[in-house]
């Protein structure tokens, strides 16, 4: 059985198909049809709802796409839908602002925008235009135009975040704590089909041993996984949710590395990455939308093994280590050995990623570039990450990670070799630029041609040099990512 708060009512569900999405549940079972379905693939934001979870005794609010969130993952959380915002007969301040500033026409996208604005209202009392753009980048409107919507969100600045939800916060916290204390784990069943919620790495291993792949599938944030359900209509027999596995939900900082649990969301990993790898954290701002980052995880991105995933090139450049667990035991393998072919990895049978360890790098320069057609919420044509050690202007070591250039995310080993011993200058990188064509023969697809990809990869090396030069001129600060669409 799973238990969660549906607005302020406790809901218990035992019998339900494990692949049921929150959106499907809302519209067909709970008969709460304010939440809309546009794309069913996480792209349009029409289905946005807000989840509240207890974090250090307070409620943490997150906007998410209900179309790609599975119902079982709601265990122990509060699901807030647009129907619940109006309280005691009064519109919520975000709803009132949309009315006052004419932010809606046909209204199809409006519930989604309202929920993203509600998320912003609860998390940021003085939103800037940049905050508003970040919060709303995952919501599409096709008829009103964004100006009035952004005006509505900006008009809330300085109003504080006190509302009926704040008044009931203590009550909600104790209700959610009671659910998780009485029942830390949960499950859904539907005949032989199951949704399982292990709470420890041992229990996760046991679940995978009891239900080996392909019968059982691991679910983290679901931002890749759920598309197989909504787009390809797959109905997995057993879904094992990692979002309550304590060991996979931890971040750790040691003297030599940071360790990010495989089920930690991008939003939760952001502050640690920002502290140690600013260019990496800046890249995350362009990974999907806020709704996607509030759910998606590093572990899911790596395990998915997509050649165009954004984080593997950076993890390759940073020489990250994956901590894997399986019935055969625990092992740590460098990410450079993990990807074995198109969407193939070295993950052992019934195995899972526990965490990703990133060594801290002093005295190296990190540059990260994402090339995509659109700035926000778009998949990379090419993603590149360079970690370069220099002594007196000469390259002493280099790791160049690329996505979008081959069947797997990969390092450019020939180009790395050609860089070492050369000055990090326009002339010094020419051999490495040429060597990139030995490393990669990229393909043509809808995002870019192979010729374009190779040219871009070569140009990015030049860009790194030019930025390094101007950084040197301006200051001695560590180079930061430059984003480029
Ligand atoms: C609208 C939208 C935009 C997106 N934009 C981007 C983008 O810009 N860049 C990008 O890189 N990606 C993007 N994605 C893809 C996706 O968000 C990322 O790949 C994300 O990191 C996946 O993480 P997840 O936690 O949601 O994984 P899930 O979907 O839960 O799982 C993905 C795969 O990993 C497996 N898995 C999960 N956890 C583990 C584990 N611990 N051990 C072993 N296997 C595991 C699952 O079984 C599944 O096969 C986008 C997706 C959407 C829907
Ligand atoms: S319906 Fe489009 S993001 Fe969910
Ligand atoms: S108001 Fe019509 S799509 Fe936004």
From TrEMBL:
The keyword Glycosyltransferase does not apply. Residues 1-85 form the 2Fe-2S ferredoxin-type domain. Its EC number is 1.17.1.4. Keywords: FAD, Flavoprotein, Iron, Metal-binding, Oxidoreductase. Gene3D superfamilies: 3.10.20.30, 3.30.465.10, [2Fe-2S]-binding domain, CO dehydrogenase flavoprotein, C-terminal domain, Uridine Diphospho-n-acetylenolpyruvylglucosamine Reductase, domain 2. CDD domains: fer2. GO terms for molecular function: xanthine dehydrogenase activity. The keyword Iron applies. Coiled coil: none annotated. Residues 188-363 form the FAD-binding PCMH-type domain. It is an enzyme of class 1 (oxidoreductase). PROSITE patterns: 2FE2S_FER_1 (PS00197), 2FE2S_FER_2 (PS51085), FAD_PCMH (PS51387). This is Xanthine dehydrogenase small subunit. It comes from Marinomonas ostreistagni.
